[in-house]
TrEMBL record:
It comes from Amycolatopsis eburnea. This is N-acetyltransferase. PANTHER family: BSR4717 PROTEIN, PROTEIN NATD1. Signal peptide: none annotated. Keywords: Transferase. Residues 1-113, 8-96 form the N-acetyltransferase domain.
Length: 113
């Protein structure tokens, strides 16, 4: 990717956003249930013209690092996030044991990066 990309958490829209040249080109949709101890991630979306550039992976990494920094657990409904965690097992501890979500993290060895 040639343009600079920023990733930010947008509490107004409930999304983590990837921004290139002032335009949102990707996002992860999230919801914070009452209490705020966990976050539900539901979708990862990247605009077609920006796919294949690692934007989704950077979004997921940013979101998971943000959850860790906020001491929140993850309830996951996004298969991309589940695959990312399978490939980056250092994030498995973020998945809420009581409410893991429907997109479970595959029990496999991480793929080579």
């Amino acid at each position: 990717m040639t343009a600079e990309m920023d990733v930010r958490r947008n509490g107004d829209t409930g999304s983590y956003e990837a921004v290139v040249d002032g335009q949102v080109v990707g996002m992860i949709v999230y919801h914070v249930p009452r209490g705020g101890q966990r976050v539900t991630l539901s979708h990862t979306i990247v605009e077609p013209g920006y796919r294949g550039r690692g934007i989704a992976s950077r979004l997921v990494k940013h979101a998971l690092d943000d959850l860790r920094g906020r001491d929140q657990k993850l309830t996951n409904y996004c298969t991309f996030v589940a695959d990312y965690i399978a490939d980056h097992p250092e994030y498995r501890d973020l998945v809420d044991d009581r409410f893991p979500g429907r997109a479970t993290v595959p029990d496999r060895e991480p793929r080579e990066r």
